[in-house]
Specification:
disordered C terminus, about 25% helix, about 160 residues, alpha+beta, 7 strands, Alpha-D-Glucose-1,6-Bisphosphate, Chain A, domain 4
């Protein structure tokens, strides 16, 4: 089993970052390249079992939320169909942890998956790059449109 992992620190408070990420249907708000998104079957975007149907860079992708915790500020999801990359057993987790010094947020995104051994390093690096790019997209969105992210703007007292 392979693991791809990426982490970064945001200058905004963890709870503010989590408020944006926790809605599984908010993908279009903070992921550059994501078009229309909807949660199937009338479920809410924070309901375990919700299926996100999103248009990403011209491809339709369906992902299922399989775990969500407001206490841990984490969510885990999987693909409903085969992923676009040559892998199986894909499950990814996104977690936001407070950094108490200066009230920042430590954000981690990782996945476990199976693949051909010869493709492992390539796929791990691809996913790490995507996770980093998507989190940079969140950072850029927050900085360019702070009014759209009221729960995450500003930092606590220093």
């Amino acid at each position: 089993m392979a693991k791809a992992y990426y982490s970064t620190v945001f200058e905004q408070p963890a709870q503010g970052i989590w408020e944006i990420i926790r809605d599984f249907n908010n993908y279009t708000v903070w992921v550059r390249g994501a078009g229309e998104s909807r949660i199937e079957d009338g479920k809410s975007g924070d309901c375990v079992g919700a299926v996100r149907n999103v248009l990403y860079q011209g491809r339709r992708i369906r992902q299922r939320l399989i775990a969500q915790s407001d206490v841990e500020r984490s969510q885990t999801y999987e693909f409903c169909e085969a992923p676009t990359l040559p892998m199986t057993g894909f499950q990814a987790t996104l977690r936001v942890t407070p950094v108490t010094h200066r009230d920042h947020a430590f954000v981690e995104w990782w996945t476990h998956f199976d693949c051909e051994p010869a493709r492992r390093d390539e796929l791990v690096e691809t996913l790490k790059g995507w996770f980093g790019s998507w989190l940079q997209s969140l950072r850029d969105s927050m900085e360019s449109q702070p009014a759209q992210f009221p729960a995450a703007v500003g930092s606590g007292s220093e």
